[in-house]
Amino acid sequence: MRTSIATVSLGGSLTEKLTAAARAGFDGVEIFENDLLAGPLTPEEIRARCADLGLTIDLYQPMRDIEAVPEAEFARNLRRARHKFELMRRLGTDTVLVCSSVSPLAEDDDALAAAQLSQLADLAQEFGVRVAYEALAWGRHVSTYDHAWRIVETAGHPALGTCLDSFHILSRGSDPKGIADIPGEKIFFLQLADAPPLAMDVLQWSRHYRCFPGQGGFDVAGLLRHVLSAGYDGPLSLEVFNDVFRQADAGPTAIDAHRSLLVLQETVGLARPPAPVVPTGIAFAELVTPDAEPVSALLGALGFARTARHRGKPVDLWQQGEARILVNTGPAVRRDGTALAAIGLESPDPEGAARRAEALLAPVLPRRRTPEDARLDAVAAPDGTELFFCAPTTPQHPGWRADFTDTPGRLPPGTGVLRIDHLALTQPWHQFDEAALFHRSVLGLHAQESVDVADPYGLLRSRAVTTPDGSVRIALSVGPAPTEDGAHAQHIALAVEDVVAAVRRFREAGGRMLRIPANHYDDLAARFDLAEGELETYQDLGILYDRDAGGEFRHCYTRTVGRVFFELVQRDGDYRGYGAPNAPVRLAAQHTAKRLTGG
């Protein structure tokens, strides 16, 4: 189906919004009146600009506080409407949104509302305009879609129909099943938005916290199915009021918006992009650094060995068990030092995974490689991390591993690291919801519930995306506001057989763990009945502990190098979390360490 987006959903000037919408692949736009009034372009120039970009203007909005008012007030409303209809003729659009009144002058009189909307439609028809009447969730007398439809049905005017808005319907808990009883030709327009479940005033909820379909908690797909069953064949349009989106660059936001509609259409069977190819494991994590010495020292203390070097690039492969870390000292030097720049995802069908990504607006990144290099397609996650799709390596089919030449030498005994347990990526503050949708839709990962973690300077949001069996776990997080350098630390969590033994070997090799305050262990003693001596061991080694109905979790952290630190984790039983109750302790300890070291 055709796709559209309200200009209020994007940040920037009207020209920037239109350009972003076109480049993201939208077919049309809703012109929000404030965007037109605040800009220098005439309606004719906006019309021409949209035509040049291949965009239709599907809706002009909003017209407010029109119906069920005293006669003198309605006469003023008609005069105002005439001016807007003339403007719409200049814009080249034929549908106007009329919101249910919130005016204190409005009367609770459906017959009067229907009669006045019919008169409005008479005037609109003279200009070739259709009136789409929408129930605002906070409307003074009309606040539900079925009530709005009854008024439209009573009016019985061919130029008067209804506009359905998923937020206004679902935020009130209305049952969307009744939509199927509205004739499709009388649904003049459909606006879609999702939202997180919040207990707050619906007006504030609407104005500040809407998000794109698939990023919140509403069943937008279920509502859309009812709209389609009614026979609606107009555009699927996004109307999202969100303070964060409007402060972000319009280009990436528009791509995220269009991706959400592509996924929504796939969910309801309107589109068939290539099927998701769920990764089966983590092939490697790649660090970029201007100085390999601190990273090499840390990896060596962790028991990793430098086992190979890339044939043509300054990239070393460090390995222990099934955990593989690439250290890249190439020209992509970061001002903030060492950073996690790329993740290799083992995929049963790398080419299919790349096709899926491109279909969902995540094109394969250009990559410099020689004819001898293994084909290795990568796409960029919203935070810029490169995600490589890798075929599983075997002696017969080494895949990406064939690009590396083995380094001779005896392997160290190691610290018992088995594999990469999970990766934690801090997102740009305005792209947290986008990141969750990206990893869920492009990679086929399952998004767990979002949690809030106390940071010394506010609350940090975190949400994990995983495969069902836990072979791939990525924890996404974002702080309450932008940081000075634009990001927090990232980390690589390593699964170990025995975390106590691993830490002791790490310390014997010269490694330094993050210092955990004694108060944490006093709290552990109150919360858990641990074996004799166990708590003292954890305190001595800096190990944190958690337990749930599934099992136990022991974990600890190295000092940070650049923007990266490592976590050693031991999962016992069926523990599937990430030690969230301990996160505030870790964050505070890292802030303290940074303050003491000055970096």
UniProtKB/TrEMBL annotation:
Transmembrane segments: none annotated. GO terms for molecular function: dioxygenase activity; isomerase activity. Its cofactor is a divalent metal cation. It comes from Streptomyces hokutonensis. Belongs to the bacterial two-domain DSD family. SUPFAM superfamilies: Glyoxalase/Bleomycin resistance protein/Dihydroxybiphenyl dioxygenase (SSF54593), Xylose isomerase-like (SSF51658). The keyword Lyase applies. Catalyzes the conversion of 3-dehydroshikimate to protocatechuate (3,4-dihydroxybenzoate), a common intermediate of quinate and shikimate degradation pathways. InterPro entries: DSD, Glyas_Bleomycin-R_OHBP_Dase, Glyas_Fos-R_dOase_dom, IolE/XylAMocC-like, VOC_core, Xyl_isomerase-like_sf, Xyl_isomerase-like_TIM-brl. This is 3-dehydroshikimate dehydratase. Mg(2+) binds at H422, H491, E567. It catalyses: 3-dehydroshikimate = 3,4-dihydroxybenzoate + H2O. Pfam families: AP_endonuc_2, Glyoxalase, Glyoxalase_5. Keywords: Dioxygenase, Isomerase, Lyase, Metal-binding, Oxidoreductase. A divalent metal cation binds at E134, D165, Q191, E239. Pathway: Aromatic compound metabolism; 3,4-dihydroxybenzoate biosynthesis. Residues 281-392, 419-559 form the VOC domain. Its EC number is 4.2.1.118. It comes from the Bacteria.
